[in-house]
Design a protein that fits this description.
Layout (H helix, E strand, L loop, with lengths): L44 H12 L8 E3 H22 L7 H13 L1 H7 L2 H11 L4 H10 L8 E7 L7 E7 L8 H4 L4 H20 L5 H18 L15 E2 L1 H7 L5 H7 L8 E3 L2 H13 L2 H16 L5 H16 L7 H25 L2 H23 L6 H12 L2 E5 L17 H17 L21 E3 L4 E5 L14 H18 L20 H19 L15 H21 L13 H12 L2 E3 L1 H10 L5 H9 L3 H7 L19
Parallel strand pairs: 3-5, 6-8
Antiparallel strand pairs: 1-9, 2-3, 4-5, 7-8
Helix pairs in contact: 1-22, 2-3, 2-15, 3-15, 3-18, 5-13, 6-11, 8-9, 8-14, 9-12, 9-13, 16-17, 16-19, 16-21, 19-21, 19-22, 21-24, 22-24
């Protein structure tokens, strides 16, 4: 799970041991100036903890949303910037990690050089597309584009769901310039249609800037084909079900299921084996795209691929392209009023290209060993609390409890950074060649991915860089992963009170642990295999409880007229609810029966829940909220904070809620899962 952002959808998540806190914490870890003293926690926990900050904070012009995650991500970016700025000014040995990082970053910042270079590099790529003269050549081009462009059929190499020790090629739907199929298909939704019209204008602008004499027609052709691709896409809820997206086929079966497309040429051009099992994520989409590849005009395909290419590379092209890209991707889609600073875009591009090279430099400077040691202790406490919680479940039979305990005992934990760093020695980085560096990095990373097909899974590999402010659970490896950058305030503060650390990072850890037992993760066993380890009655009991959680979140309305999709957000809502429950148990166990001290008039339990709510502090523009409601499996921050707390007995006891309070919920109606 990705704790904060959108997809890969599989990813973001006591006994009595204390978490090795300092003898005398130097702060509560709470930003009391951010409180709203006019709002009672009993009525709105999120607002009580964050209302003062919300009232006085304006979303920066270059942001679509702003809050705890964003501020910490900005801090991480600034820390990386200080490192790479120094490298860009120095003269490290040619071919060293330091030299490549510095040169990549400096070339991306050189907008004057990018403007001077003009469209020379782009013209060659567009000429390659224009030269496509057959369906076989179309398949080859789409294969070569893997890892560089969001094509209608995107490939990855990942652990086989039912044989998690082996890597397999997996297909996934893609190829859309708008965030989701709903933007194309829901023509009665005025907000979505406004974005759709902005996209149509953007395609026309790109074609014009690229010198296309038939710009209007090219944009029309591209969008018409893209509309058909969108119609073939599965909905977001369907793609969350690992059983539905696990469809193993060999090449002969794929040819029969999706005729009209040269799959052998496609795989060969992507440097992938043709004699291995393929996992097809959305079979009907693959069939429909193969039909489009066979029947739609090659001119339509070339118009579409040209504009998708220009859009993908826009930030590495002259100013007019960069401005057009921000006007659509930034302002129209997210509501941002100014483009992100170029240096921060450079850091994002660098992280994508050479993330672990940057991470190696980052952790040496910003991740003390004591942080890792304390996190290991905290994870141990949370896992112990989870074991106790499973044993106490009233709705699960002993046989399934034993399977759940077996799975929990096999959890692997990764904290901070990988034990072994990736080798970037063969990546070529040239000074002053921003676009070339980006393409070569994409090709380099894809070659690394493709080489894993059919080979044993590397269980030591990481799916995030250390400088990423996030966390995840991977069901195929049955692992929880916490990059170094999230292990900072407001989530984790070495100097802070235990109550707030348990409410913030403790709940994050609990969240990730819980993903192994949400509606998706619970379908994988302790060895990471997709296998039903439940009795039929236990699964029915689980689904009965989660149906109530779906109903609760369906009732929330973040934007006027737009309700949350409780089915789309179910996995994250389960993890929020269960993670908060487990973190609270772990905190109580850490007290060893003694009462927590009262600090600033707040007892330990109150500080725990305020720490939880403070971690979700955020403001979001309406355009971005619309986008997230359409594509994001996470609920908006306010509903994450309040939606989990309202079901928690500890919250009601800590604040003494009673009938009439807006967050009061009768004990018998509170939802308890894990």
């Amino acid at each position: 799970m990705k704790l904060k952002l959108t997809t890969l959808a599989l990813l973001l998540q006591l006994a009595g041991a204390c978490m090795a806190a300092p003898a005398s914490p130097t702060s509560t870890g709470l930003d009391t100036k951010g409180f709203d003293t006019t709002v009672r926690a009993q009525d709105d926990l999120f607002r009580a903890a964050n209302g003062g900050w919300l009232n006085r904070t304006k979303i920066p012009a270059d942001k679509a949303d702003y809050g705890a995650f964003t501020m910490l991500a900005d801090q991480s970016d600034a820390q990386v910037r200080a490192i790479v700025d120094e490298l860009a000014r120095s003269q490290p040995p040619l071919g060293s990690i330091e030299q490549k990082v510095g040169a990549f970053y400096k070339s991306y910042l050189d907008t004057a050089g990018i403007d001077k270079a003009g469209l020379q590099a782009l013209k060659q790529r567009l000429a390659d597309i224009a030269a496509i003269s057959s369906r076989a050549e179309l398949a080859k081009w789409l294969g070569r584009a893997q890892g560089q462009l969001g094509t209608p059929i995107q490939l990855d190499v990942t652990a086989d769901f039912k044989h998690p020790e082996i890597n397999r090629v997996m297909s996934w739907q893609g190829g859309l310039g708008l965030p989701d199929r709903d933007y194309y298909l829901k023509q009665d939704d005025k907000r979505l249609q406004k974005a759709y019209q902005a996209y149509a204008q953007y395609l026309n602008k790109l074609a014009t800037l690229a010198g296309d004499k038939q710009a209007v027609e090219s944009a029309r052709r591209a969008l018409a084909l893209e509309q058909k691709i969108a119609a073939a896409h599965w909905g977001k809820v369907e793609t969350r079900d690992p059983e539905k997206i696990y469809n193993p086929m060999n090449l002969a079966q794929l040819n029969a299921a999706a005729p009209g497309f040269d799959w052998a040429a496609f795989l060969a051009a992507a440097s992938l084996p043709q004699d291995d099992t393929l996992i097809i994520g959305q079979p009907s989409t693959v069939t429909a795209v193969a039909k489009l590849a066979a029947e739609e005009s090659l001119d339509d395909w070339k118009a579409y691929l040209s504009l998708r290419t220009i859009d993908t590379l826009a930030d590495l092209l002259p100013k007019a392209f960069r401005d057009a890209s921000f006007a659509f991707h930034g302002k129209a889609l997210t509501g941002a009023q100014a483009d992100q600073p170029r240096w921060q875009k450079a850091i994002a591009e660098l992280n994508g290209a050479m993330g672990e090279a940057v991470g190696q430099l980052y952790v040496a400077k910003h991740f003390p060993p004591a942080h890792k040691q304390r996190m290991q202790e905290l994870v141990k406490n949370l896992l112990a609390a989870y074991r106790e919680s499973i044993e106490a479940l009233s709705w699960m039979t002993p046989a399934t409890k034993a399977q759940a305990q077996d799975k929990l005992s096999k959890y692997m934990t990764k904290i901070g950074y990988p034990d072994n760093w990736r080798d970037y020695s063969k990546l070529e980085v040239q000074a002053g060649d921003a676009l070339g560096n980006s393409l070569r990095a994409a090709q380099f990373n894809w070659a690394r991915t493709a080489a894993k097909a059919g080979k044993p899974v590397d269980r030591a590999e990481w799916g995030m860089t250390p400088q990423t402010v996030n966390a995840y659970y991977n069901p195929s490896l049955n692992e929880i992963v916490f990059p170094a950058a999230i292990l900072q305030a407001p989530f984790f503060d070495m100097a802070a009170d235990d109550a707030v650390n348990y409410g913030a990072i403790g709940a994050v850890i609990g969240h990730e642990i819980s993903h192994g037992f949400d509606d998706e993760g619970s379908k994988f066993d302790g060895d990471g295999a997709l296998r039903n380890w439940w009795t039929e009655d236990d699964r029915k009991a689980f689904e009965s409880v989660t149906a109530r959680l779906i109903e609760q979140y369906n009732g929330y309305q973040p934007i006027a007229g737009k309700h949350l999709n409780g089915k789309l957000t179910l996995g994250e809502n389960i993890a929020d609810l269960s993670g908060l429950q487990i973190a609270f148990k772990a905190y109580q166990a850490s007290l060893k029966g003694a009462p927590a001290p009262v600090i600033d008039g707040l007892n330990g339990e109150q500080r725990f829940f305020l720490g939880w709510a403070q971690a979700w502090r955020e403001k979001t523009r309406e355009e971005r909220s619309l986008q997230l409601l359409t594509i994001d499996p996470h609920s908006p921050p306010k509903f994450r904070a309040n939606g989990a707390a309202v079901n928690h007995d500890g919250f009601h006891k800590a604040f003494g809620t009673k009938p009439g309070d807006k967050m009061f919920k009768p004990e018998a109606e509170r939802i308890r899962i894990w």
